[in-house]
Design a protein that fits this description.
The protein is an alpha+beta fold and about 725 residues long. The chain is built from 15 helices and 39 strands. The chain has four domains: about 1-20 and about 95-295, Methylamine Dehydrogenase, Chain H, CATH 2.130.10; about 300-350, no CATH class; about 355-455; about 495-515 and about 535-715, Rossmann fold (3-Layer(aba) Sandwich). Strand 18 (about 305-310) and strand 19 form a beta hairpin. Helix 3 crosses helix 15 (about 715-730). Its EC number is 3.4.21.26.
């Protein structure tokens, strides 16, 4: 289970039940909302654009779309879009798979199947250049048959009895690419939805199989069932053949928390029900059911908790002292679950970060723990062996400035329980998928063997990757990657595209630039110069663990923006580029970053692409899922918080005077009508306000579907990327 997030996974936290009644403060909250709405109506002349699909709002959107498309959608745009779509639809992409039983499952989109195929194959077939796939669900055919533009959002399999094959799944389908999904029971032997089976209506739903005839469902069941963040506040046990409205409520949280969720762990020998009360993004509690009671795992709410077989695993966000020992943020701590719950289990530190390392994720083979670690934003893989006193040893996997990720193939399969997947990629290195086996020691560990390799999508022979460090305003060294032509002339005339995020402890690591290569790098200006690309590893992210993230929380948010600006200055000072040739892009929380570059550092950038963004930080908690991000940004309804939130609210920073002689960079602001996570209205209002101010070089574009991803299929993704690249290239390339 993961918490709802903006664009990239945030750390999972779990929490405590507060009973099933609605929070008593609800009337006060509604009254306060009415007062706030009245205040904003007087102050905000563009509040009407928050009417998501009203005629006047959509007329404005259509008008802006027409204007933007008339300017950008020409032959050059079409060529860029086609080049990107060719990459996205390429038949020789790696079909990444998940093993369940004897089969390997994959979801696939291409030009013939834009909505996609859910399919599976055998291991022997997967090893072939062109595997033979059994199609389980053709989403294009389903959409055509039902007259709904379904977007596949995943499937949850029901664990079968020992020795049996998987036969049932819960398939999640979004009607528009947003977070709301319909959940339907699917029968694998007949390749059909189960007549009269489980079928949950469209909502922001979390669901778990409790057994073959029972689900744990967290969803919208009417008044009082949702949190202020728009997620489920209550969880019900739904039995086959019964109505959801009649199902027993088994868990509930306070309305001000983010969400409630109950899952069933069906691991043989470790079956249990686990409840989660996600208080906010970084605080939560976890409960394990014992009889009719939920037993709380007693740790501070900012200690991440997960369970694996007989273990409980902890990851503190702040220093955690227990029994006289302090565990630093970002460490990995383990205990025997039964002993810990009984108050007798000793804690064992498995991983302790340094100033230059951070733990990104873990997974488990049958008898080992696999750790994905970053060392100055380059990947390291560590293998932990519990049988040898939890000894850590590195897996020798190659060069720095690349990304490697390791995960178990199937820890419960006796024939391959120690097998792992290893994915290798880099900015200029197409992805390779390998499979290996964890040995008992370094001497007999099997070398991972390549299984699939993707071909190059552009000619990268004359490009190189380098890493640099800029010094931020407070003296912090901030890393960034630069991808540029070899022997780059340092005369400030090179078109450069910066990318950043800086939030929610999400890390930006090297990955193959399959679409950006043809869309930006290999293009040439009239003077024959090619594009360069920069990834900024600013604070707020997780590149150096919780400390790097927490350094830019709430009142310290400005540090993320100072970091990004410091990298821009470093590029200019090194002669890599200049303001006239420097573009930047970011989405979601990265869109908020871009909004602050537009309003706070206009002298540094020639053009900005600001996607699916937060921008009105006065009202963000009242729009879509915004209330769930208060722990990240602060609560604008608390006067003391608004004092600092105001300083990074781009919509309000437009009221501040520009530095003398400065002008706003050319700005493309874009979103999606169906985005039910951030929503399109903040982007609309920002663009409308800039246009009303007489800013001539701002453009707005809004997709009608695709949700927070901004696109629901490869064609829409190609259009979205080409629109951004084309706008930026035209403003900084010559």
């Amino acid at each position: 289970m993961s918490t709802p997030h903006l664009e990239t996974p945030a750390s999972t936290s779990l929490a405590e039940t507060t009973g099933s009644s609605e929070a008593p403060a609800s009337d006060a909250l509604v009254q306060n909302d009415n007062v706030q709405a009245a205040e904003n109506t007087a102050e905000d002349q563009f509040l009407w654009l928050e009417e998501l699909d009203s005629d006047r709002a959509m007329d404005w959107v259509v008008g802006q779309n027409d204007r933007t498309e008339a300017e950008l959608f020409d032959a050059d745009f079409a060529a860029t879009k086609d080049a990107i779509l060719t990459v996205l639809d390429a038949a020789d992409r790696i079909p990444m798979v998940t093993k369940r039983g004897e089969h390997y499952y994959n979801f696939w989109r291409d030009s013939q199947h834009p909505k996609g195929l859910w399919r599976r194959t055998s291991w022997e077939s997967y090893l072939q250049q062109e595997p033979e796939w059994e199609v389980l669900l053709d989403v294009d055919a389903l959409a055509a048959a039902e007259g709904i533009d379904w977007v596949y959002s995943g499937a949850q399999m029901l664990r079968p009895a020992s020795g049996r094959e998987y036969t049932r799944a819960l398939v999640k389908l979004s009607p528009d690419g947003g977070d709301q999904v319909r959940v339907r029971e699917f029968d694998l032997p007949t390749l059909a939805f189960v007549p009269g089976g489980f079928d949950l209506p469209v909502a922001k739903t979390n669901v778990s199989w409790a057994d073959a005839d029972t689900l744990f469902v967290a969803t919208d069941v009417g008044e009082g069932s949702l949190t202020l963040s728009s997620y489920a506040r209550t969880v019900r046990r739904l039995s086959r053949g019964h109505e959801l409205a009649e199902a027993e409520e088994i868990f509930a949280v306070d309305q001000s928390h983010v969400l409630a969720y109950v899952s069933h762990d069906s691991t043989p020998g470790f079956e249990r029900d686990v409840a989660h009360d996600v208080i906010d993004f970084y605080n939560s509690k976890t409960y394990v059911r014992s009889g009719d009671e939920w037993v709380h795992l007693d740790v501070p709410t900012d200690v991440g908790v997960s369970l694996h077989r007989g273990w409980v695993i902890f990851s503190p966000q702040t220093p955690w002292t227990r029994e006289g020992v302090t565990h630093i943020p970002g460490s990995l701590v383990l205990a025997e679950l039964d002993g810990f719950m009984a108050g007798t289990g000793a804690l064992r530190e498995i991983f302790v970060p340094t100033d230059s390392t951070s733990l990104q994720s873990i997974d488990f083979t049958a008898s080992h723990i696999l750790l994905n670690v970053l060392q100055d934003v380059s990947s390291q893989i560590l293998i932990c062996d519990p049988a040898r006193g939890f000894e850590l040893r590195p897996l020798d996997i190659g060069s720095p400035l690349h990304s490697f990720s390791i995960s178990a193939v199937d820890d419960e399969d006796p024939e391959c329980g120690e097998d792992f997947w290893l994915s290798l990629t880099g900015f200029l290195t197409p992805t390779t998928l390998a499979r290996g086996t964890v040995g008992s020691d370094a001497a007999n560990a099997a070398t991972p063997l390549p299984v699939k390799s993707a071909p190059a999508r552009f000619d990268a022979e004359d490009f190189e990757v380098s890493q640099h460090f800029a010094v931020s305003d407070d003296g912090t060294r901030v890393p960034y990657f630069q991808v540029s032509p070899r022997e780059l002339p340092l005369d400030g005339k090179n078109p450069v595209l910066m990318n950043g995020y800086g939030g929610f402890q999400a890390s930006l690591t090297p990955s193959y630039l399959g679409a950006l290569g043809p869309g930006w790098l290999v293009r040439r200006t009239e003077q024959g110069r090619r594009g360069s690309y920069v990834v900024a590893n600013i604070r707020g992210g997780g590149e150096y663990g919780p400390r790097w993230h927490r350094a830019a929380l709430r009142e310290n948010r400005h540090r993320a923006y100072e970091d990004f600006a410091a990298i821009a200055r470093d590029l200019i000072n090194r002669g890599v580029t200049s303001r006239e040739h420097l573009a930047a892009t970011g989405r979601s929380n990265g869109g908020l970053l871009m909004g602050n570059m537009i309003t706070g550092y206009p002298e540094l950038f020639g053009a900005i692409s600001c996607g699916v963004p937060l921008l009105d930080m006065r009202r963000y908690t009242r729009l879509a899922a915004g209330h769930s991000w208060i722990a990240e940004y602060g609560d604008p309804d608390v006067p003391a918080d608004w004092e600092f939130v105001r300083t990074f609210s781009p919509y309000h920073r437009l009221d501040d005077a520009l530095p003398k002689g400065a002008t706003y960079p050319a700005s493309l602001i874009w979103s999606a009508t169906s985005d039910d996570r951030v929503g399109p209205v903040q982007a609309r209002k920002m663009a409308a306000k800039m246009l009303d101010m007489g800013v001539g070089n701002v453009r707005y574009h809004e997709s009608l579907d695709g949700g927070h991803a901004g696109a629901s299929d490869n064609g829409a993704t190609a259009t979205m990327l080409a629109t951004s690249y084309e706008f930026l290239w035209r403003h900084v390339a010559d």
